[in-house]
From TrEMBL:
<feature type="domain" description="Copper amine oxidase-like N-terminal">
    <location>
        <begin position="36"/>
        <end position="141"/>
    </location>
</feature>
<protein>
    <submittedName>
        <fullName>Copper amine oxidase N-terminal domain-containing protein</fullName>
    </submittedName>
</protein>
<dbReference type="InterPro" id="IPR032710">
    <property type="entry name" value="NTF2-like_dom_sf"/>
</dbReference>
<dbReference type="InterPro" id="IPR012854">
    <property type="entry name" value="Cu_amine_oxidase-like_N"/>
</dbReference>
<keyword id="KW-0732">Signal</keyword>
<dbReference type="Pfam" id="PF07833">
    <property type="entry name" value="Cu_amine_oxidN1"/>
</dbReference>
<feature type="signal peptide">
    <location>
        <begin position="1"/>
        <end position="25"/>
    </location>
</feature>
<dbReference type="InterPro" id="IPR036582">
    <property type="entry name" value="Mao_N_sf"/>
</dbReference>
């Protein structure tokens, strides 16, 4: 028994020594399981153990964490970007950068057998994952940790303040919630608040990523009009990127609308603007002309209803191809003007039904669109792009 135990111990020692060898000796992949938030990820030959440390080919690894990557061959530098975090690191360098801040990365980026490898624990840790090793199951587990309850509260406090500012229509308060480098059009939001009062209810919120300097939160917001100018009630999913200000408080850097559902389409037609009869008739006439041109497959007549825009020839070609291959039957159910600046800009709200026949294959849909109109001289014309608020297959 003693001899057998010594042999087993000796074999274990030899294995351990071989794993702790140099880079060239450790290039053979080992059977290691990686679990990301409880789900197994098979990195195959892209995962190796070097001196007892797990490394994965940078592209395969960073993709799993949601990063987009670029690699500079000249400098052997990896640039990795995800929501709220930018990592820059070079092969063999002792220092890298996370969101512009210098960090120590000794031995975290290596080159081996033609591959560029990055430390698995390093990437997991900087991406807010808890990294654990189980020798029994030979498993590396990575579980997203995110911020603490206190840190979450600090992030969510921004949105609580934003709701209060919205309720008060406080333009000054809005500016105070924006970061110094914000991408937001603060004046645009302020103008909207001056003309329209809304109420937003946050139905759901979660923190998507978190670092000391950048936090990203996804909110489901239900916004309704209280009073004032035209506003379509809607439920949206928005991604807020926050930067930490010099005062230590979170500020809004940017907002992306990921999805939107308009919740009171019929009620939009009750928000008609006051427009002189002559202008209203002219706006309706140009849209009528556009529909007629589409039904008659008249490209030139269709283009004549549009405000000037770049790449008109490209649209002309597209319309020609469409009219050549499809027959349209568009009818207007109802329309109204919902915005008017008093002189030369307006917004047209239209409900229409479209039947399309492509080589005998027919489809029918009803939709509601918003189309901006502008007055050029004494003639109203339409913007080439319209916003679809709803589309229902019939």
């Amino acid at each position: 028994m003693k001899l057998k135990r010594i042999i087993v111990m000796l074999i274990s020692f030899v294995l351990a020594f071989s794993l702790a060898g140099n880079v060239s000796a450790a290039s053979k992949p080992l059977t290691i399981t990686v679990a990301l938030n409880g789900k197994a990820v098979d990195f195959g030959t892209n995962l190796v153990i070097v001196k007892g440390k797990a490394f994965v080919e940078y592209g395969a690894l960073l993709k799993q964490f949601g990063y987009e990557t670029e690699f500079e061959k000249a400098t052997q530098t990896i640039h990795a970007k995800a929501e709220g975090i930018q990592i820059d690191m070079s092969v063999g360098s002792d220092q890298g950068s996370i969101n512009g801040q210098t960090v120590a990365i000794p031995g975290e980026v290596i080159s081996l057998n033609g591959q560029t490898l990055v430390g698995l624990r390093f990437i997991g840790t900087v991406s807010s994952y808890k990294v654990e090793w189980s020798g029994k199951t030979q498993t590396i587990s990575l579980t997203f940790q995110g911020p603490t309850d206190e840190q979450k509260a600090a992030v969510y406090d921004v949105f609580n303040k934003l709701l209060l500012v919205e309720a008060a229509g406080d333009a000054t308060g809005l500016a105070a919630l924006m970061s110094d480098d914000t991408l937001m059009d603060i004046k645009g939001v302020e103008e909207r608040w001056k003309s329209t009062k809304t109420k937003t209810v946050i139905e759901n919120k979660r923190i998507e990523s978190y670092t000391d300097k950048v936090a990203v939160a996804v909110l489901t917001e239900n916004s309704t009009k209280v009073s004032g100018a035209f506003f379509p009630d809607n439920k949206s999913q928005a991604r807020y990127t926050l930067h930490k200000g010099a005062d230590g408080n979170w500020k809004i850097y940017n907002v992306e609308i990921l999805a939107v559902e308009y919740t009171n389409i019929p009620g939009l037609f009750d928000q008609a603007a006051t427009v002189p009869d002559a202008d209203k008739a002219a706006i309706g006439k140009v849209f009528e002309d556009q529909i007629k041109a589409a039904n008659e497959k008249n490209v030139e007549a269709y283009l004549a209803t549009l405000l000037d825009f770049p790449n008109k020839e490209a649209l002309k070609q597209t319309l020609g191809d469409l009219f050549k291959n499809a027959t349209l039957a568009v009818t207007v159910d109802k329309w109204t003007v919902v915005e008017y600046n008093g002189t030369d800009k307006a917004t047209l709200l239209v409900s229409l039904t479209t039947e399309v026949d492509v080589n005998g294959t027919k489809s029918k849909a009803r939709g509601v669109i918003l189309n901006e109109a502008g007055k050029v001289g004494d003639k109203w014309l339409l913007n080439v792009q319209a916003s679809s608020l709803s589309n229902e297959q019939l």
